[in-house]
Structures are given as C-alpha cells and as structure tokens.
C-alpha cells in the first residue's frame, strides 16, 4: 500500500497510537521541498493561546452515503487531547484512533502548550510509516513504505496544519463568525514526496443541526485546498466539531459526534 496522508481527506487521516516514542531520524540524503508561496491576500490564521485547549475525548460515527442511497458504516473515530510532558516541556498530544476498518492507521501530533506550535508527528497507514520533528520553520522526517525508505526536509509556512485532529482542535478555538476567512497550509504526504498545499478556512454560514435529539446552533466551516473541500459543523455552545462531511468519488463521507 502506498502511504498517503492528507489532512483534508478524512479516509486517510484517522487513527492514532497514544504510546508513540520519539522518532530517530535517519541520516540518508533528504528530499528537500520548498514551502508553498501564499499569493492570496487572505491573512494566515492567528495561533490561539495554548491554554485555551482542554483535555478530552470525542468519538465520531463514520459513514459513507453512496449515490444509490445506501449508507455504509465505516466504524468510529476517536479524537483525544491529552496533557503530557515532553523533554520537561508541557505539551498537548492530539491523538486520533479509528476502529472498524480493515487498514490499521495511526496519527499523533505533539504541540507545545505555550503557543500550539508542532514538535513531533508520527503516523502510519498499514505498513507505511512517517515520523517527523520540527524547528521554527522546517520539518525533518522520514517516510517508509513498500517502495522503500526516504528522508525529507520541508520548509513550512505560517499556518501549517498537520492532521485532521490538529485542524479541528485549532478551528474550535478560532473566533468564528460569518465572514471569517483565514489562509492555511495542509501537509500532504503521497509516497515519499511530502508537500504543503495552500488552503483557505472560512465560515460559510450558520446552521441548526439536529444532533442527539436536540437542535444545535452551529457555524459551518469550510476548508478548501486544491481539489479537497471539507465542511465542519462547529457547535456555538460547546465549540466542538459535531459533524463533518466530505464529498468523494464514491459518495459523501460523514463523521457525526456521538452524544
């Protein structure tokens, strides 16, 4: 299986291992990839205060709504935020886990508590593995798949988002309102060639979502990056993502928060 990680493609960014160890980066020659040039006049999202993030676990029911009207269950996805210490420094671990799928996937991101800047990232899809560490403006890591092993060095711009869990948890902290727009960059890993995809995050409208037998007032947040478009319903009351959708060639993929 080819390793493909995409923050916007929910099918490719799901599970997380809580007990990941720091990754020893290889000394093989690195693939150097430049950061994308942001040509849009939309300002990059402002990093929220790290103290605003809170520990907790949310579990989502995953479904695929096919064009013929059939609905296929795709298991559950859990997003957990934990308060940890890495090298003596307080950090947040954003951990995702998925059950009910034939392919084992894991994804974990460590963020500094002070400013929510990334420190480490570990992910797997089947036999494919990725491990990375960060400096202020770069990511250094390695990808291993059936094609072999390769290291990389990528310049990352301001507003870089790594995993679906990281994206959702930061969006929940944004000052959402109709008309809110911010530029971002999504980290995509396809095979051994990582790249950053420019993206736009915007609040498209307000909506009242039926959830858990109740009517929940939400902001509808749309994330667009190239051909990727994902819609998130963020509760105005709890500030949690209660539903997300993405249209795929096989149908509409949805994740709904369990009450």
Protein described:
This protein has one helix and 17 strands. The protein has 259 residues and is mainly beta. It has a 17-stranded mixed sheet that branches. The two termini are 35 Å apart.
Q: Give the averaged pLDDT, no decimals.
A: 83
Total strand count, please?
A: 17
Which stretches are low in confidence, meaning pLDDT under 50 for 5 or more residues running? 1-35
Task: Work out the strand percent.
Answer: over 45%
Helix count?
1
Structural class: mainly beta
N-end to C-end Cα span: 35 Å
What kind of assembly state do the chains in view correspond to? single chain
**Biggest sheet architecture:** 17 strands, mixed
**Which shape, going by the Cα principal axes?**
globular
- SSE string: EEEEEEEEEEEHEEEEEE
CA-based gyration radius: 18 Å
Helix content: under 10%
Itemize the secondary structure elements and their pairings.
Layout: E1 4-6, E2 30-33, E3 56-65, E4 71-86, E5 89-99, E6 105-112, E7 118-125, E8 128-134, E9 138-145, E10 148-155, E11 160-161, H1 164-171, E12 181-190, E13 193-211, E14 214-225, E15 228-235, E16 241-248, E17 251-257
Parallel strand pairs: 2-10, 11-12
Antiparallel strand pairs: 1-12, 3-4, 3-17, 4-5, 5-6, 6-7, 7-8, 8-9, 9-10, 12-13, 13-14, 14-15, 15-16, 16-17
């Amino acid at each position: 299986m080819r390793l493909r990680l995409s923050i916007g493609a929910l099918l490719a960014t799901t599970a997380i291992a809580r007990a990941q160890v720091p990754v020893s980066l290889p000394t093989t020659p690195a693939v150097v990839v430049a950061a994308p040039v942001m040509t849009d006049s939309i300002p990059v999202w402002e990093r929220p205060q790290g103290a605003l993030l809170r520990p907790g676990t949310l579990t989502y029911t995953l479904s695929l709504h096919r064009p013929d009207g059939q609905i296929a269950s795709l298991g559950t996805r859990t997003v957990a935020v934990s308060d940890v210490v890495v090298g003596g420094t307080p950090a947040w671990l954003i951990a995702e886990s998925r059950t009910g799928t034939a392919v084992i996937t894991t994804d974990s991101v460590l963020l500094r508590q002070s400013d929510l800047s990334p420190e480490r990232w570990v992910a797997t899809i089947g036999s494919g593995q990725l491990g990375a560490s960060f400096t202020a403006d770069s990511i250094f890591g390695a990808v291993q798949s059936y094609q072999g092993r390769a290291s990389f060095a990528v310049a990352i711009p301001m507003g870089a988002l790594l995993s679906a869990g990281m994206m959702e948890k930061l969006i929940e902290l944004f000052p959402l309102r109709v008309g809110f727009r911010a530029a971002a960059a999504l980290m995509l890993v396809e095979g051994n060639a990582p790249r950053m995809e420019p993206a736009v995050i915007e609040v498209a409208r307000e909506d009242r979502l039926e959830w858990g037998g109740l009517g929940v007032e939400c902001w509808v947040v749309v994330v667009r990056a190239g051909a990727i478009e994902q819609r998130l319903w963020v509760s105005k009351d709890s500030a949690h993502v209660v539903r997300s959708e993405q249209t795929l060639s096989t149908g509409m993929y949805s994740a709904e928060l369990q009450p």
